[in-house]
Design goal:
With about 210 residues, this protein is an alpha/beta fold. The chain has seven helices and seven strands, in the order βββββααβαβαααα. α4 packs across α6.
């Protein structure tokens, strides 16, 4: 049991009891290609989760970062056409990889401490892609210690295949009766929000048996 200072209500549910003291963190990354070693990470969104006073998993806070390509990174035109990112547009307000990573690590470490978890575990749609890019980002910036599980993840594509027989994010959302705007797809922020909605809805379907 814990007291939620933000909402000033007593909440008997705690997220650290739901996932073996792992803190699920939704992630979506947009890049300049498929190679985490050579292609740039251009945008990253992370969304923290919480369990409300009814025992339901919900979105908590959303953090979005536009990132400058690292030196000598390869920018694939095909990938940039899909995500519609101009890496050097002056209005992107992009920051360096290091700046973004330091902020992300601080956010997640604070969340782990506040919610009394041991480690963060990434949640994503085809999350192996995002996990590989994040781990390479950490390695490239010579971060020796980080809060993320190094090999276990929660993949909403797999969960969706189990629940509704769909693996594409838009089709999975549609099958789960979650609104999806195709024109906003391939935006890190939008896809992360929809992935969060999908993950929470799947987990909440099991609420009666788990709580």
């Amino acid at each position: 049991m814990f007291y939620n200072n933000k909402k000033k209500i007593f909440n008997k549910y705690s997220i650290n009891k739901r996932f073996r003291k792992f803190l699920p963190v939704v992630i979506d990354i947009e890049t300049s290609g498929l190679d985490p070693k050579n292609n740039a990470l251009l945008e990253i969104t992370i969304i923290t989760l919480k369990i409300n006073n009814k025992g339901l998993l919900k979105k908590d806070e959303i953090f979005n970062f536009h990132i400058k390509p690292f030196k000598n990174s390869i920018l694939k035109k095909k990938s940039l056409k899909i995500n519609k990112i101009d890496p050097f547009h002056p209005l992107r307000c992009a920051i360096s990889e290091k700046e973004a990573l330091i902020s992300i690590l601080q956010i997640i470490n604070n969340e782990i401490k506040e919610k009394k978890c041991n480690k963060a575990i990434l949640v994503g749609h085809n999350v192996n892609f995002d996990h590989n890019f994040l781990m390479q980002l950490i390695k490239r910036n010579k971060i020796k210690k980080h809060p993320f599980h190094t090999f276990t993840t929660f993949d909403t594509a797999t969960l969706s295949a189990l629940i509704v027989g769909q693996t594409v994010l838009s089709k999975s959302c549609k099958a789960m009766k979650i609104k999806f705007n195709y024109l906003k797809a391939h935006s890190s922020l939008y896809d992360a929000i929809k992935t969060s909605d999908l993950f929470c809805k799947i987990i909440n379907l099991q609420k009666q048996s788990l709580f």
